[in-house]
Amino acid sequence: MNILLYKVSLLLYAVTTVLYLVCVIQNRPGRDRWARIALLSAFAVHSLTLLMRYLEAGYTPITNLHESLSFFAWTIAGVFALVNWRLRMNVLAVSTATLVLVLMLFGSVMPMHVQELNPALNSLWLPVHVGLAFLGNAVFAVAFVAGVFYLLEERMLKSKKFSALYYRLPSLDTLDMVNYRCLTFGFPLMTMGIISGAVWAESAWGTYWSWDPKESWALITWFLYAALLHGRLSIGWRGRRAAIFAIIGFVFVLFTFLGVNLLLPGLHSYSSMAGS
Fold first, then answer.
1. How many CB atoms lie within 10 A of CB 235?
2. Where are the chain's structural domains?
3. Maximum CA extent, the chain
4. What's the rounded Cα separation, in Å, for the pair 141 and 144?
């Protein structure tokens, strides 16, 4: 049942992406109503998908690559739905919806059957640690999208060559504000995710930190965002520099999430690539 619902939510995210793309092309106020309905519908069905998988598996479904991609897409969709409720920005919406759709598509080609839970993951810390980490990453995904469009708009302003996209973008101040707000929410979530992971590691393996590749890259990523937050609060970093840091930071997030798990052997490596 959860696999069927997953495919329905994937289809709804595709519809959401197309509808927001039409809104951007037409650039008419009030035309995003159906796109917002599609986004909320996709998120609702996706939420039901995760609930059904939880009921079928008996554990929080975030333990293999398919489940992690699905959960990451769900958190990004949820975070952006909240952002879009306050600030309706169709250009950011179509880009974020596309990111969610890509994650869902990758998840659809991974082994999707429910697997037996590894005893090492049978802990209440699993949803706490992974949930906090993914929520922080989802907030940083929105900051990444805002950062990309900030650099594009700034480049057009400096070159005085304005494409059709320019007239559909929010102001530079709005994009910078989104970047900053995402940082102030995402950084504490990432921090709590790392701390909860350390506490879980101590209870499971008797040590708070083992310098596993995932832990090391998570710490590097944390320092990157810590530097950005320090720069914004103490030095006054804004605009271009903050946008570049947000983009680089999310690249590190993706590498920590996927690259480390797939390329570097360790305690956090996915063992389900072959469906075993």
1. 9
2. 1-119, 123-269
3. 59
4. 5
Give the pTM.
Answer: 0.89
Residue 203 identity (one-letter amino acid): S
> In this structure, how many other beta carbons lie within 10 angstroms of the beta carbon of residue 276?
7
- CB atoms near residue 156 (< 10 Å): 15
Tokens of 234: 């103490």
Query: What distance in Å separates the CA atoms of residue 13 and residue 175, rounded to the nearest whole number?
Result: 24
Please give the DSSP secondary-structure letter assigned to residue 121: G
CB atoms within 10 A of CB 94: 24
CA distances, 55 to each of 49, 78, 155 (Å): 10, 21, 49
Residue with more model confidence, 25 or 261: 25
Which residues are CB-neighbours of 21 under 8 A, at least 6 positions away?
94
Residue 221 to residue 211: CA distance in whole angstroms: 14
Answer whether residue 23 shows pLDDT above 70.
Answer: yes
Structure tokens, 30: 């009030």
- Residue 145 and residue 240: Cα distance in Å, rounded? 13
Rounded Cα distance between 60 and 70, Å, is: 12
